[in-house]
Amino acid sequence: MPQTVSQPTVVASRHSLVVRITHWLTVIAFFALLISGLEIVISHPRFYWGETGNVMTKPLFTLPIPSSRDTVPTAYNYVMPDQNGWSRYLHFQAAWLVLLTGAVYFLVSLWNRHFLRDLLPPAGQRNLRAYTRVIASYLRGRHKTVDDASSYNVLQRTAYLVVIFILFPLMIWTGLAMSPAFVAVAPWSSIILGGKQSARTLHFAITGALMLFVFLHIVMVALAGFWRRMRAMTTGLPASPVTEERP
Amino acid sequence: MKTITRRRLITTGLAATAGIAGVTEAARLAKRYGLAPPDCGGIYGPGETLTYAASRVFGAHAMAREFPRSMISEKPFANEIPPLPEAFKTQQAVGFKDWTLTVDGLVAHPTKFSIADLTTLGRSSQITEVSCEEGWSYVAEWIGTPLAAVLREVQPAPQARFAAYFSVQRELWGSIDMEEANHPQTQLAWAMNDGDLPVGFGGPLRIRVPRQLGYKSLKYIDRITVTDSMKRFGKGLGSVDPEYGYAWYAGI
To answer: Per the CATH hierarchy, to which homologous superfamily does domain B66-244 belong?
Structure first.
């Protein structure tokens, strides 16, 4: 495999331009959503199941943090500064960014077969053995044997597919299911999830799943060579060690 | 093959950039066609405009979800209220019998309504949810007069675009566009859960805008002004909320 990289005619970028642009726009939107989302949560760090829930009703669980509103009973005797205004403005603006970026990425990836070519595990590797082989290599610290400079291994492919086709759509859905105007247009969006408060609790839980993905993703990038991978995702320059040599 | 693929991807990338530029241009056009909210200036303007425009284009006639009687919250939460003025307490002492709602501005017949007047104008009841921007919510039955019935009585001018409403707590005021004002579920509530409307929940008169968050449903309403522009009110952002950093449109 590595021999092909040394042939000058097949120097291809690891990531297409569309992937690189949409990746970084999503990174910006994701962190804007994460920070503003956590700010919004602070104003009511109690979670419920069902349609309704407020300080008069029993929560499903409560985050052990102070609140930014004095109407919320917490174990702390101080109230955090209220940041909901700009947080909500930023949250929805970033949500539009992620939605539009996602739409461009989705349509282009269908059109240029990025999903089929780069993300769907190849025919011979849709089995448990392919996964255990990659996991075992990572656990033994021999990630280089399953890191491919020009492609993704099955574990990467699966993780990306889960994020793209399950976590992000669920995040957008559970977010919209909290909106009174959206639920007026599409009541089923809230009903299927078990109600508005269930949607809010799920929105919070999926945030955890996405944070876990981002953490592992950064760890993996660091293991594979942080700057090399950053350059591949930014300029698109070949990431193979052969082209790394400089005077 | 590789070269062609790469070129095609670059073209696609340019198309994506053009798409983003197109969105910005669309936001500018939205302003011209009344799809931009009064607080569309500033760095969050594009997002706000997209949200408000989407709600007008796709959900202008949508109905807020109504719930069965069995889902009425046993323990609704009356949010904190800023101190009430002396004028309110004087009215409260006599059971709000002298409470009036003044409707003026761009209307053919400016009128002062008593609550008794409102009850004869029309009655609607809805079991809808109050959702706070903080995240909590409750379901209650709201009984009142559709705002549309009040507007029919005063006859807004054709150029009317907003209904601005004012609480007896003068620092609290807001507005909705005329489509929202004429929506069948937008209501001036004077009763709740088959009883009087408690002061904690906005009694004697509260506006209910069930397709938006709770902070649009102001309590203690005593004046509605129909207008073609929100520029002359406060800092011109449509309601007092953007002056504190909160969006004028609160459908999300």
So the answer is: Oxidoreductase, molybdopterin-binding domain (3.90.420.10)
Out of B51, B58, B75, closest to residue A92 by CB: B51
Per-residue pLDDT at B220 exceeds 70: yes
pLDDT along chain A (247 residues), means of 10: 44 82 97 97 97 96 95 91 94 97 96 93 91 90 76 92 97 98 98 98 98 95 88 77 42
Is residue B228 helix, strand or coil?
coil
Longest alpha-carbon distance in chain A = 70
Tokens 């503003």, residue?
A: A36
φ, ψ dihedrals at A230, nearest 5°: -65, -40
Please state the length of chain B.
252
ipTM score for this prediction:
0.90
Cβ-count burial B184-200 (b if 16+ within 10 Å, e if not): ebbbbbbbbbeeebebe
Dihedral angle over CA of B239, B123, B179, B235, nearest 10? -10
**Helices marked H in B65-190:** 86-93, 115-121, 147-154, 178-181
Supply the pLDDT for residue B1: 40
> Do the strands B100-105 and B221-227 form a parallel or antiparallel pair, or are they unpaired?
parallel
A80 secondary structure, DSSP code: P
Would you say how long chain A is, in residues? 247
Cα separation, A182 vs B228, in Å, equals 27
* Rg value, chain B, Cα: 21
The tokens for A201 are 């609790």
* Amino acid found at B82: P
**Given CB atoms, is A17 within the 8 Å cutoff of chain B?**
yes
Domain ranges of chain B: 1-63, 66-244
Which residues in chain A have their CB less than 8 angstroms from residue B65's CB?
A: 183-184, 187, 190
CA B87 to mean position of chain CA atoms? 25
Beta bridge partners of B100: B114
Contact B210 A197 (CB under 8 A): no
Contacts of A158 (CB under 8 A, 6+ apart): A121, A131
Task: Report d(CA B164, CA B176) in Å as an integer.
Answer: 7
pTM value? 0.90
Residues of B in contact with A112 (CB under 8 A): 5, 8-9, 12
Of B5, B51, B64, the CB nearest to A180: B64
| DSSP summary character for residue B201 | G
